[in-house]
Design brief:
The protein is mainly alpha-helical. The chain has 2 domains: about 60 residues; about 45 residues, no CATH class. Helix content is about 55%, strand content about 5%. The radius of gyration is 28 Å and the shape is elongated.
Length: about 110
């Protein structure tokens, strides 16, 4: 009976370490899978094309802000294709920035 008890005590002492080992092995496997997928040219091309689509859709401007721009309201800036306007760009005014995050005339309200 004492030997069975010793086995259970030993298992309880080593359990946290074995869980860490399992997590490390799973992470290494996932990392290897991702790196292996990136070695396939078709996957790299797909990722690049997808990234270009996403990044170009985030900046939906048809016209960059120019010196001398002044918009009465965000509807005018959007109609001109200049929105959103960042705080370091011409035409930015704090009155157009509803949430005071440095981006005026954001596409979401």
């Amino acid at each position: 009976m004492a030997s069975v008890r010793r086995v259970f005590v030993r298992m309880a002492e080593t359990a946290p370490y074995s869980m860490v080992l399992v997590k490390v092995i799973l992470f290494a496997g996932a990392l290897g899978l991702c790196l292996g997928a990136l070695s396939v040219p078709e996957v790299r091309t797909w990722i690049g094309e997808t990234w270009i689509e996403i990044s170009s859709s985030l900046d939906a401007r048809t016209r960059k802000p120019q010196a001398g721009d002044w918009w009465r309201d965000c509807n005018d800036a959007r109609a001109a294709g200049t929105a959103p306007i960042y705080s370091y760009e011409p035409g930015y005014r704090s009155e157009l920035d509803r949430d005071a995050d440095g981006i005026a005339c954001e596409p979401y309200h």
